[in-house]
From TrEMBL:
GO biological process: carbohydrate metabolic process; GDP-mannose biosynthetic process
Pfam families associated with the record: PMI_typeI_cat (PF20511)
Entry keyword set: Isomerase, Metal-binding, Zinc
EC number: 5.3.1.8
Keyword Zinc on entry: yes
UniProt function note: Involved in the synthesis of the GDP-mannose and dolichol-phosphate-mannose required for a number of critical mannosyl transfer reactions.
Similarity comment: family membership: Belongs to the mannose-6-phosphate isomerase type 1 family.
GO cellular component: cytosol
Protein name per Swiss-Prot or TrEMBL: Mannose-6-phosphate isomerase
Record-annotated Phosphomannose isomerase type I catalytic domain positions: 8-146
Domain of life: Eukaryota
């Protein structure tokens, strides 16, 4: 196995869930062959939900040229070289890439869920290791990508929508009192007295869920409600551990710590609900729209100023976004941590320390720590218009590097940076 590669092309793991978009309508399916290998074939009857990029055991990345060799195997061959000194010292107990990078293509609601913090994750790993194998927290960030949701039922230009956290109490009261179904379910009693037998409130809950699913377009986008709508390309949101959320529709990129722990409480069969754990651990703190949105600024390690950095409150990773015109290049100074990236549209060239890869849609790569990385539009791509460039600039988000290809493509790169003070 190679012991000193700077750039490695990888194959990720595609996953199917019934909430994923079906067949070739799914972004995951569109990227599948180049993301997961030539053995990936689209079945129009299947729902393609996820591409995973990382070293987690539930979807580990492998060499594109040899699927018998995993990225984790490569790291074990020389942990300090492939993870960097800072990462190896920070997390000496593991050889995993410290983040998990995903693309999600969502047709219908995921379960209403939360991901436990470290304390609860450790408890669950001891109590139920079969279902909770990761004693790690799982905060995450997501960014909306792709075209507006079909039909415009969520509003003009909306590319992603979902439930995220809680709105202020005054807003909750306002929305409850405006819904006859919820008022009837809750009544005039104190909140603590409203947990009635399931049979008594089931019809009212069903009615309310139907109203949420079919009538959400009546409300303008507002992050302070339970329903959070992310508008346009590139809007990003941070979701902390123990915060309730459920993605409803759209294409997003997600980045999180290395964990697959999840506690579901709604939009799943009763047997799958972890209601007691959910209530015990859930964070009920309300946050404003400004609190959840991720701002961005010029990345300090960008040599041309074409890269923006998103700074979530995480020590495991930082998200970058780069936009280039035909003929432009960007150089990102070295960091002491690994980099993962995927091309979602167009063709791009990635170079590092004399090595180079030309990547097409769906291609995934890993760049080793300690070297400058040059990103450019691959030669031979079509010219694109200024309108497309503006759209690309709006795509800057999440833990990603977004590099525009000449036909309107982007390359999304997640870069680990343990020294957050450089942002």
């Amino acid at each position: 196995m190679p012991s000193a590669q700077k750039i490695i092309r990888l194959r990720g793991s595609t996953q199917e869930y019934d909430w994923g978009k079906q067949g070739s309508a799914s972004l995951v399916a569109h990227l599948g062959t180049n993301a997961a290998g030539s053995d990936f074939k689209v079945d129009e009857k299947k729902s393609y939900a996820l591409v995973w990029m990382g070293t987690h055991q539930n979807g580990p990345a492998h060499f594109f040229s040899d699927p018998r060799k995993s990225l984790l195997d490569l790291i074990f061959s020389d942990p300090k070289y492939y993870l960097g000194d800072a990462s190896s010292q920070k997390w000496p107990e593991t050889k995993h890439v410290p983040f998990l990078f995903k693309i999600l293509s969502i047709e219908k609601a995921l379960p209403l869920q939360f991901h436990p913090d470290r304390v609860i994750a450790e408890e669950l790993a001891k109590q139920d290791p079969e279902n909770f194998a990761d004693p790690n927290h799982k905060p995450e960030i997501v960014v909306a990508i792709g075209e507006p949701i079909d039909g415009g039922s969520w509003g003009e230009g909306v590319t992603f929508t979902g439930f995220v956290g809680f709105q202020p109490l005054s807003k909750i009261r306002e929305h409850i009192t405006s819904s006859e179904d919820l008022c009837e379910a809750i009544g005039d009693d104190k909140i603590v007295d409203t947990f009635r037998p399931q049979a008594a409130i089931a019809p009212l809950v069903a009615s309310s869920l139907q109203r949420i699913a079919s009538g959400a377009s009546r409300f303008p986008p507002d992050i302070t409600r339970l329903v959070r709508t992310v508008n346009d390309h590139g809007e990003a949101v941070y979701i902390g551990a123990d915060e309730a959320h459920a993605y409803l529709a759209g294409n997003i990129i997600g980045c999180m710590t290395v964990s697959d722990n999840v506690l579901n409480v709604a939009f799943v069969a009763p047997a799958e609900r972890r209601t007691a754990d959910f209530v015990r651990a859930l964070t009920f703190t309300a946050h404003s729209e400004e609190h959840r949105r991720l701002s961005h600024a010029r990345y300090a390690k960008s040599k041309t100023g074409k890269t923006q950095a998103y700074d979530p409150p995480l020590e495991e990773s930082v998200v970058l976004g780069t936009a280039l015109k035909q003929g432009e290049t960007e150089t990102l100074a070295a960091v002491d941590g690994p980099t993962l990236g995927i091309v979602t549209l167009g063709r791009m060239k990635v170079s590092a320390d004399g090595e180079a890869l030309t990547l097409v849609e769906g291609s995934i790569c890993c760049v080793s720590p300690g070297t400058d990385t040059e990103i450019s539009v691959a030669e031979g791509d079509r010219e694109y218009t200024e309108d497309i460039l503006v759209m690309k600039l709006d795509v800057l988000a999440m833990e990603i590097t977004v590099t525009a290809a000449s036909d309107g493509g982007y390359a999304y790169k997640l870069k680990q940076c343990l020294d957050l003070s450089v942002i």
